[in-house]
């Protein structure tokens, strides 16, 4: 495709989100992202399920803001697939807030595409670039993808947030504190598949280190806050126990107190007992933390034969399963794991890796994950035998 030469420099800027989107982020974080537990594949366009986008003419159904937004996301997939088919990156049909939360949980950046179907560059970009095999494979492995129509739903709000000068408009986004997002890269205008993949690869390499470091600091803060809460809870329980003992002592008749001269002086030691209880709790917390650190270091410092490998397996119905192997395990181990799941409709199949594309079948069963380049993490697609490989 023809494209002009542009200087896509990697920049990091903060963008303020509209209040309606911020409300969605709060709800997504509050409900624990329940849609993920129901299966991520259900949030993608299901070609065997018809989702009505408008109520019947003779029935008036009041629609909430969330319902209108959900319709907007399905409208994007409907519009996109009607014009360009079902071979495209794995776009999640959900609120922008839910997609951001999903990206944060997967430790990935969000790739956002804003579609303006009437723009003269849109048709060529979607057909020749966005739906090309190298771009699909690269985005599916490295990003969580979200798309919106530039003239409806949350797409309108994101256009107002990013203020693109032209279309098509793509952006690489990372979560940020407060009512903002970190826009790591914003791409506008036509791009070839090689240009798009090259820019995205460079963004990952230059911004990924900083993103990972910030994530590690955040995890460390969460662990410290958890330990502080545990110590505060222990102190509260100790104080509650002491207050109950005091109440029991105060409620005793005077003659019983006189009959127990040895027990009365013990009330003077309540403060000391509570401090001892708190100190023991802190020591136990430190011991548990030390055990966890040693265990984690033990896993990392074991011989090269025990280094873990994360394998994400995607099934034809959109379902995803992730499992940890060792890089000395063979391809046969992955097949055995899939067979142990007992999923219906899984017969003879082979596994396909992408970027670069490679098939794994009977001939590769004895090869290790390191030998096949699937270490330290990889995504494999389950392909039933008999399906033509493009």
Automatic annotation (TrEMBL):
SMART domains: UAS, UBX. Pfam families: FAF1, UBX. Residues 304-382 form the UBX domain. InterPro entries: FAF1_2-like_UAS (IPR049483), Thioredoxin-like_sf (IPR036249), UAS (IPR006577), Ubiquitin-like_domsf (IPR029071), UBX_dom (IPR001012), UBX_domain-protein (IPR050730). The keyword Cell membrane does not apply. Transmembrane segments: none annotated. SUPFAM superfamilies: Thioredoxin-like (SSF52833), Ubiquitin-like (SSF54236). One of its GO terms (biological process) is ERAD pathway. GO terms for cellular component: endoplasmic reticulum. Keywords: Ubl conjugation pathway. GO terms for molecular function: ubiquitin binding. Gene3D superfamilies: Glutaredoxin, Phosphatidylinositol 3-kinase Catalytic Subunit, Chain A, domain 1. This is UBX domain-containing protein. It comes from Psophocarpus tetragonolobus (Winged bean).
